[in-house]
Amino acid sequence: MTNLDRRTVLALMAGLAATSALVPPAAALEIADYSQENLSKLQAWGKPYLLDFYASWCVTCAAQQRVLDDLTKAEAKYAAIPIVRVDWDTYGNGELAKSLAIPRRSTLVLMRGTTELGRLVAETREDKIAALLDLAGT
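Above: the chain's sequence. Below: its structure in token form.
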């Protein structure tokens, strides 16, 4: 094992600090539970957001969430898209689901304002979910 003097250790620490400053922090995934207030803010914001119609007991919904987690960890552009989780058991027969003609839980709808950009129903393949999220850039 090599003995390092104080000057060498300080130089190494400075180098590590400089290197870490160059690496941007991972973007934080923004997930909010549905409320009309949350939705209204996102609609007025004018940027894309994802409506995630889910149920806590739904295995397809859980698989979709795992894919979304993986995608947002891998790509900052995906992490920048806020997600509004709409509990199917509470809001499945509500005005939002009816107005968007949501057929079932495990439906993902990408929106900008009040305009639908795309949707997936019961889809768990990473490439398909990534393609939906890519529509946010259009």
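Confidence is low (pLDDT under 50) at residues 16-27.
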